[in-house]
């Protein structure tokens, strides 16, 4: 069974899916006239713009919606995932992460536009939306099976990738670093999650608005200090990134296609895992925003990719590459290419969270050793919060709003038992690994229905965007007459 699921997982997250995600991002980038790139400063301005009374339909502020989306993407992947990409794919993987992020801004923009354009009001009076709603309302009732398929994948992915893996990782790192009993971690983690999740999107958005900016800002600041302390190594770090991206070895050895492909594969995969552009999770959060303007919320939505990958992931990469903790023999090269292709690091070379931890410890000493476990715990906890709302909306779409409370109770129970499973690892280790594989597969499968909808509904996105930005005065002021735009709620 494990071999079968591993094979399916490799197909789901193989080149066909990664290529489809990239090509969709490229198609949307060109179709949007590259506004998802050169309008990034404008998007930051809109994020903090004071809004009038005509834009207050929704449950959380546009800022809170973005923070909720970021709470699910800024997680262990930004710390452990980036390090693993560098360790296996070499520094060149960072360049391909950037490429994925740049193209992902158009995908996230389009998701945000469609989320608000086709959102609904549920029986509790809340604004709800996401891929399942823009599939149903945008493509028509005959596409309903695709919407239900997305919801099915999304609900189970929330229990897996967004919940059990995060809780299990927190219990594991706290047990390894501080010998803290997994049962204690399970109690506090489940209790903290319950206190927030049972309050619904408004409480999740409120907590995310406070925790996410603090945790991301603190991590970026501490990382920047490391880079500044090693400023002389920065030019060399960028040189290795660009050389590795295109398989350029030392002078005289030419281009290695195999190493370039390896860097591309690991960088693209890590970029997509990190920012979730095209996966369809973030638009569920943006649909709840107090903003009636689809395009305006779309500009805010695309900032998720910028902050997550171009800011946080880049800081992690530069800390690792400038701290001197990676020896030359541990970097991708002709001599270890075949081994790296199997996903294995050379003996004595760190990867994942231990590599990032070593990089911070090299500068901050004992404090640096504690930084990564603490950051992982906070990042994972906010991921649990964000994904709870995604899964909740998927469950409600399939079974009505009556499913929300039972879903929340099950979700909290999964948090508890996933953390506690570390104490029973010897007895249930194989079962946990199997569950993780299934969860990762389902998370990947979420992308397929969403990408289909993005491609077929792209003319709607293009038209709304042209109408918005072609009005010089309104675009400059950031205000659009709501009567001139198709209503999404």
Automatic annotation (TrEMBL):
<dbReference type="InterPro" id="IPR001463">
    <property type="entry name" value="Na/Ala_symport"/>
</dbReference>
<keyword id="KW-0997">Cell inner membrane</keyword>
<feature type="transmembrane region" description="Helical">
    <location>
        <begin position="211"/>
        <end position="233"/>
    </location>
</feature>
<keyword id="KW-0769">Symport</keyword>
<feature type="transmembrane region" description="Helical">
    <location>
        <begin position="300"/>
        <end position="321"/>
    </location>
</feature>
<feature type="transmembrane region" description="Helical">
    <location>
        <begin position="143"/>
        <end position="160"/>
    </location>
</feature>
<keyword id="KW-1003">Cell membrane</keyword>
<feature type="transmembrane region" description="Helical">
    <location>
        <begin position="403"/>
        <end position="424"/>
    </location>
</feature>
<feature type="transmembrane region" description="Helical">
    <location>
        <begin position="444"/>
        <end position="462"/>
    </location>
</feature>
<feature type="transmembrane region" description="Helical">
    <location>
        <begin position="180"/>
        <end position="199"/>
    </location>
</feature>
<protein>
    <submittedName>
        <fullName>Sodium:alanine symporter</fullName>
    </submittedName>
</protein>
<keyword id="KW-0812">Transmembrane</keyword>
<comment type="similarity">
    <text>Belongs to the alanine or glycine:cation symporter (AGCS) (TC 2.A.25) family.</text>
</comment>
<feature type="transmembrane region" description="Helical">
    <location>
        <begin position="371"/>
        <end position="391"/>
    </location>
</feature>
<feature type="transmembrane region" description="Helical">
    <location>
        <begin position="12"/>
        <end position="35"/>
    </location>
</feature>
<keyword id="KW-0813">Transport</keyword>
<dbReference type="Pfam" id="PF01235">
    <property type="entry name" value="Na_Ala_symp"/>
</dbReference>
<keyword id="KW-1133">Transmembrane helix</keyword>
<keyword id="KW-0472">Membrane</keyword>
């Amino acid at each position: 069974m494990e071999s079968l699921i591993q094979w399916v997982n490799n197909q789901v997250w193989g080149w066909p899916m990664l290529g489809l995600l990239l090509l969709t991002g490229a198609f949307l980038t060109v179709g949007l006239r590259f506004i998802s790139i050169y309008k990034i400063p404008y998007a930051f301005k809109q994020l903090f713009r004071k809004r009038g009374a005509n834009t207050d339909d929704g449950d959380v502020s546009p800022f809170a919606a973005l923070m909720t989306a970021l709470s699910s993407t800024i997680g262990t992947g930004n710390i452990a995932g980036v390090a693993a990409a560098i360790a296996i794919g070499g520094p060149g993987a960072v360049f391909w992460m950037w490429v994925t992020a740049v193209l992902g801004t158009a995908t996230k923009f389009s998701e945000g536009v469609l989320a608000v354009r086709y959102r609904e009001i549920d029986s509790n009076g809340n604004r709800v939306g996401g891929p399942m709603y823009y599939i149903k309302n945008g493509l028509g009732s005959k596409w309903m099976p695709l919407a239900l398929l997305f919801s099915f994948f999304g609900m189970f992915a929330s229990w897996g990738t967004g919940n059990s893996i995060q809780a299990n990782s927190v219990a594991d790192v706290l047990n390894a670093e501080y010998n803290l009993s997994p049962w204690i971690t399970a109690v506090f983690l489940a209790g903290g999650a319950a206190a927030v999740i049972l309050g619904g999107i408004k409480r999740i958005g409120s907590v995310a608005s406070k925790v996410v900016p603090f945790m991301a800002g603190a991590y970026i600041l501490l990382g920047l200090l490391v880079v500044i302390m090693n400023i002389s190594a920065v030019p060399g770090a960028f040189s290795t990134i660009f050389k590795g991206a295109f398989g350029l070895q030392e002078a005289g050895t030419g281009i290695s296609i195999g190493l370039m492909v390896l860097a591309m594969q690991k960088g693209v995969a890590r970029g997509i895992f990190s920012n979730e552009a095209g996966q369809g999770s973030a638009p569920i959060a943006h649909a709840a925003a107090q903003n009636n303007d689809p395009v305006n919320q779309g500009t805010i939505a695309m900032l998720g990719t910028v902050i997550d990958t171009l800011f946080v992931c880049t800081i992690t990469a530069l800390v690792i590459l400038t701290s001197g903790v990676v020896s030359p023999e541990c970097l991708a090269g002709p001599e270890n290419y075949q081994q790296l292709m199997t996903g294995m690091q050379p003996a004595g070379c760190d990867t994942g969270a231990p590599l990032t931890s070593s990089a911070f410890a090299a500068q901050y000493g004992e404090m640096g050793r504690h930084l990564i476990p603490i950051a992982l715990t906070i990042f994972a906890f906010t991921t649990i919060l964000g994904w709870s709302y995604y899964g909740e909306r998927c469950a409600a779409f399939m079974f009505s709003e009556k499913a929300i409370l039972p879903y929340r109770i099950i979700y909290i129970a999964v948090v508890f038992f996933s953390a506690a499973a570390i104490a029973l690892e010897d007895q249930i280790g194989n079962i946990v690994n199997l569950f993780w594989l299934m969860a990762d597969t389902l998370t990947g499968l979420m992308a397929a229905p969403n990408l289909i909808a993005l491609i077929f509904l792209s003319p709607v996105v293009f038209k709304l965007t042209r109408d918005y930005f072609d009005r010089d005065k309104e675009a400059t002021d950031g205000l659009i007459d709501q009567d001139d735009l198709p209503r999404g709620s």
